[in-house]
Amino acid sequence: MATFPTNDRNGNAANFQVFPFGGAGNIAGSSVIVDPASGAAANIAPNGVALNVSGDTTTATYWYTALALAPVATPTDVVQIQGSATRTCRIKRIKIGGVATAAGNMPVQLIRRSVADSGGGTVLTPVTAGKADINDPAATAVVSTIGTANPGSLGTQVGGILRNDRVQMSAASTGVAANDVIWDFSTRFDKACVLRGLADFICINLNGAAIPAGGVLDLEIEMEETN
User: Fold this and answer.
1) Pair 114, 158: CB distance under 8 Å
2) Beta bridge pairs of residue 167
3) Non-local CB neighbours of 213 within 8 Å, separated by 6+ positions
4) Region 182-193: what's the mean pLDDT?
């Protein structure tokens, strides 16, 4: 067995241990690299050829979804994601799509705020988290859809726009698909959108544009929580 010091993605010290297969000290044979802290493992095949391994993580992971969400006529923030008092929350992926009576599109932005949206008769509806693993603890972040009316007061924006794009809405009666907006913070070694504390918010915003007639949105958010 050989142990190699390294750092995890949070900058914390960790050790990777290499356990040789086929005899003590024979690291030229098939080996497995194990992170003792998390149990994550990767295989090394003979002659350095990679073997297929599961990419599963032990980190608590949750999905939040909304199907056929009907925003107000000229929506600003339509989703608010609030951080946790006890855990660090990492948004890994956001997918946004939609349909309308006739094909159309809308601008969409991802904005960080330091204060919650409020007022104006708006209604925040919490979305129930779906667990990736039934043994994961209860989610502590709060993801809410925003409806009935636009917030009378948008929370204070922190920094610049994190992402922007256009939601393509296909015509509902045709069955023709349009490309979804996908913001993926996991496949290109990107850093996730990190939420730290109750005064940290990430919002999906439609910039006050007029929603196409009959327009509804389908949303999917993947998020991790760590202590």
Assistant:
1) yes
2) 106
3) 100, 101, 102
4) 86
Q: What is residue 73's predicted lDDT score, i.e. its pLDDT?
A: 93
Name the DSSP letter for residue 72: -
| CA angle centred on 49, ends 48 and 54, rounded to 5° | 115
Reading the block at residue 10, the tokens are 């949070």
Higher model confidence: residue 11 or residue 160?
160
pLDDT of residue 27: 44
The pTM of the full predicted model, rounded to 2 decimals, is: 0.77
Q: Give the CB-side neighbour count of residue 179, counting CA atoms within 13 A.
A: 5
SS3 label, residue 217: strand
Specify burial of residue 128 (Cβ count, 10 A radius: 0-12, 13-18, 19+): exposed
CA distance 88 to 10: 11
For 139, the 3-state DSSP assignment is coil
Number of residues written out for the chain: 227
- Cβ contacts of 113 within 8 Å, gap of 6 or more: 154, 155, 156, 157, 158, 201, 202, 203
In the chain, the domains with their CATH numbers are: 2-48 (no CATH), 60-226 (2.60.120)
